[in-house]
Amino acid sequence: MKIKILGSAAAEGWPALFCECECCKIARQRMGKDLRRRTAYLLNDDILIDFGPDAYWQVIQFEIDLLKIDAIFYTHSHSDHCNPVELLWHRKGYSQVSRTRDIFGNQTTLNKIKNIFEFGNWETYGLVPHLAIPNKPMEYKNYVITPILAQHATYPEIPLNYIIQDDKGKTALIGNDSGWWCDVTWNTIAQFKLDIAILEGTMGPKYADHSRGHLGTNAVVKVRDRLKEIGAVDNNTTVVVNHFSHNGLGLHDEHEQFFNPLGIQVGYDGLDIEK
């Protein structure tokens, strides 16, 4: 299983538009791993997880062959993860498109995408919607994908994380945009042995113990430790922290100084994770 991090920032990106904070000033100077697009992932070569406002840039920068993409799995409807305008160009007339693609997400996300259509329906745009429901595994191509309830967003939206199993016996957790999970989600995760666990660190060292909706640096470690306690993670699991906000402080090297000694890798745009 291979996962490429296409973006590693929270909603504003990093450096953030218009921002004059010191972290953004330094990021503009350094670029490199301190340049963070909005969070999204490429699973192997055929699935995208989230498709946000930096999608075009990411596809070009990382040479993604969209002809190979079968589906997009959305975690939730927030604009940094779901930018439905980009799906307008899937309609014939805007682009030469020879196939349909599957779209998975919660009902709020599917409604958001549907409402952007200029005319027609899902079929007009060559897209096939699928409702993702927490704790209801979905067999798709060579994968079994289990949505789990994230602790994020507000009612009535049902935010999602995903546990992905491939046909080679490898299992990954995409866990960004969630605070401390509810008991039901913890119990679901406990049923899996994770080869890759991607957590989130939005709140950074400034709000180190924050655990509602997003995680601070100390909370990330507590989540990793809890995953070990329930048997989902061991020393062979690749644990990566991703989804950073400039408001939480901590440039890339500062995050590495904190997380690397604890056995947690720090995500950045273009990082390949393979197990």
Query: Strand arrangement, largest sheet?
Result: 6-5-4-3-2-1-14
The CATH superfamily name is: Ribonuclease Z/Hydroxyacylglutathione hydrolase-like
Which whole number gives the mean pLDDT?
97
Name of the CATH first level: Alpha Beta
Structural class: alpha/beta
Number of domains: 1
Question: What is the CATH architecture assignment?
Answer: 4-Layer Sandwich
Helix fraction, binned, reads 10-25%
Cα-based radius of gyration, to the nearest Å: 18 Å
| Number of discrete helical segments | 6
Q: Which word captures the global form? A: globular
Word description of this protein:
The chain is 20% helix and 23% strand. It is α/β, with parallel strands linked by helices and 275 residues long. The protein has one domain (2-272): Ribonuclease Z/Hydroxyacylglutathione hydrolase-like (Metallo-beta-lactamase, Chain A, 4-Layer Sandwich). It has a seven-stranded mixed β-sheet. A seven-stranded mixed β-sheet has the order 7-8-9-10-11-12-13. The mean pLDDT is 97.
Could you give a short description of this structure?
This protein is an alpha/beta fold.
Pick out its properties.
275 residues; alpha/beta; Metallo-beta-lactamase, Chain A; 7-stranded mixed beta sheet; 6 helices; 14 strands; 20% helix
Provide the fold topology.
Layout: E1 2-7, H1 22-30, E2 40-43, E3 47-49, H2 55-61, E4 71-73, E5 101-105, H3 107-116, E6 127-131, E7 138-140, E8 143-149, E9 160-166, E10 171-174, H4 183-189, E11 196-200, H5 217-229, E12 238-242, H6 252-259, E13 265-266, E14 272-274
Parallel strand pairs: 3-4, 4-5, 5-6, 10-11, 11-12, 12-13
Antiparallel strand pairs: 1-2, 1-14, 2-3, 7-8, 8-9, 9-10
